[in-house]
Amino acid sequence: MKIKLNGKEYELEREITVSDLLKKLDIHPQSVAVEVNLNIIKKQYYDKTFIKDGDHVEIVSFVGGGIVN
Question: Which domain covers residue 28, as residue numbers?
């Protein structure tokens, strides 16, 4: 099955949860926000939300920064 992942085509063998996708990509769930088909997924639903054929998934990482005095 094919999905769009951060704007690029990505192939998966089957439907998987958001948690499984993050594990597959070696991404720590606490450091990202995930959107599926324009819906932001709350972290407590990562194990219950399935990625399906044709879905559009955006994974956004948080980067710290700022001015150091």
Answer: 2-61
Residue 17 in any domain: the answer is: yes
What value, to the nearest 5°, has the Cα angle with vertex 68 and ends 61 and 27?
A: 15
Q: What CATH number is attached to the domain comprising 45?
A: 3.10.20.30
| pLDDT string in tens for the chain (69-residue length) | 999 999 999 999 999 999 999 999 999 999 999 999 999 999 999 999 999 999 999 999 977 766 766
Amino acid in the structure at residue 55? D
Q: How far apart are CA 5 and CA 10, in angstroms?
A: 6
Residue 63 is which amino acid?
V
pTM of the shown model: 0.87
Q: Beta partners for 50?
A: 17
Spatial neighbors of 52 by CB under 8 A, at least 6 apart, are 1, 3, 15
